[in-house]
Amino acid sequence: MIKVGVVGGTGYTGVELLRLLVAHPSCELVAITSRAESGKAVADLFPNLRGLTDLSFVAPDAAQLGECDLVFFATPNGVAMTQVPELVAGGVRVIDLAADFRIADQAVWEQWYGMRHACPELLPEAVYGLPELNRQAIREARLVANPGCYPTAVALGFLPLIEDGLVACDFLVADTKSGVSGAGRSANVAMLMGEMGESFKAYAIPGHRHQPEIRQTLSRVSDEPVGLTFVPHLVPMIRGIEATLYARLTDRSVDLQALFEKRYRQDCFVDIMPPGSHPETRSVKGANHCRIAVHSPREGDVVVVSSVIDNLVKGAAGQAVQNMNLMFDLNEDCGLNQVALLP
């Protein structure tokens, strides 16, 4: 059994991670930390876990975490980087679900996150945890940077086109929409039902922290500079991301459906929908799947890709468990075969 610790188990991502781990056949949860809730039974805070774990939250303790095989960080940005060096040096493998290790360039990271990086020496070692792109490197990694939710949906939609050099990379457009759980569990007036219910808006148009992460991922498979327009939107639902992606084709003769089906044939959590499909966020609710449809409207030179994920599963906790499976030589889908919830 893999002895697992979870640092920061009280947010939406944290409880989603716990939901998956308590049912995982190869995991033993040994520590779930929270300074604010220390001493409180996990199932008292999250009643969906009643009967599945008898653990209580504990304050972070380096010695206890050091006895784990793997530690997940489901903490705010800037927390993991202060604790990871000691854990990694002690032989503990780490998956960070926040952004501390996602961007390889220290200066770029500090510019977008507004703080100094506490352990820049680990940035070159951190493996970006998108299995469909970095599967082998993840298997061997000591430190995995779990991708952001928007970057997961966007990258999986664009990758086949860019890898094959089929689109002009100087002008890519990602028009994305997310449910409110992506904003976290902390109190926020803007997230109240009376504020965002029956409404729909774009936000962070001048610049969003996920933009450099997306550009970095796409640049690694592109032979030319990547120009990305990324506009996120907030929609009045709890879970889900839909990314509508636009690019200009450089070769209109390619069978795009066949291209996407071939690219993801070996990827158990990417589902390429039949021609003419329009993926729905509800089709992935609670599941670790990304469903994708590719279109070429009116047979023109613009390709449109629709990509949907559950932001808390394939966009966060599920992908983290997928990475854990790879790191410990388990079947990639181990503990991740949940069927999406309908309605």
UniProtKB/TrEMBL annotation:
<dbReference type="InterPro" id="IPR036291">
    <property type="entry name" value="NAD(P)-bd_dom_sf"/>
</dbReference>
<keyword id="KW-0521">NADP</keyword>
<comment type="similarity">
    <text>Belongs to the NAGSA dehydrogenase family. Type 1 subfamily.</text>
</comment>
<dbReference type="Pfam" id="PF22698">
    <property type="entry name" value="Semialdhyde_dhC_1"/>
</dbReference>
<keyword id="KW-0028">Amino-acid biosynthesis</keyword>
<dbReference type="InterPro" id="IPR000706">
    <property type="entry name" value="AGPR_type-1"/>
</dbReference>
<keyword id="KW-0560">Oxidoreductase</keyword>
<dbReference type="InterPro" id="IPR000534">
    <property type="entry name" value="Semialdehyde_DH_NAD-bd"/>
</dbReference>
<feature type="active site">
    <location>
        <position position="149"/>
    </location>
</feature>
<dbReference type="InterPro" id="IPR023013">
    <property type="entry name" value="AGPR_AS"/>
</dbReference>
<comment type="pathway">
    <text>Amino-acid biosynthesis; L-arginine biosynthesis; N(2)-acetyl-L-ornithine from L-glutamate: step 3/4.</text>
</comment>
<dbReference type="GO" id="GO:0006526">
    <property type="term" value="P:L-arginine biosynthetic process"/>
</dbReference>
<dbReference type="GO" id="GO:0003942">
    <property type="term" value="F:N-acetyl-gamma-glutamyl-phosphate reductase activity"/>
</dbReference>
<dbReference type="Pfam" id="PF01118">
    <property type="entry name" value="Semialdhyde_dh"/>
</dbReference>
<dbReference type="GO" id="GO:0051287">
    <property type="term" value="F:NAD binding"/>
</dbReference>
<keyword id="KW-0055">Arginine biosynthesis</keyword>
<dbReference type="InterPro" id="IPR050085">
    <property type="entry name" value="AGPR"/>
</dbReference>
<dbReference type="GO" id="GO:0070401">
    <property type="term" value="F:NADP+ binding"/>
</dbReference>
<comment type="function">
    <text>Catalyzes the NADPH-dependent reduction of N-acetyl-5-glutamyl phosphate to yield N-acetyl-L-glutamate 5-semialdehyde.</text>
</comment>
<dbReference type="InterPro" id="IPR058924">
    <property type="entry name" value="AGPR_dimerisation_dom"/>
</dbReference>
<protein>
    <recommendedName>
        <fullName>N-acetyl-gamma-glutamyl-phosphate reductase</fullName>
        <ecNumber>1.2.1.38</ecNumber>
    </recommendedName>
</protein>
<feature type="domain" description="Semialdehyde dehydrogenase NAD-binding">
    <location>
        <begin position="3"/>
        <end position="141"/>
    </location>
</feature>
<dbReference type="GO" id="GO:0005737">
    <property type="term" value="C:cytoplasm"/>
</dbReference>
<keyword id="KW-0963">Cytoplasm</keyword>
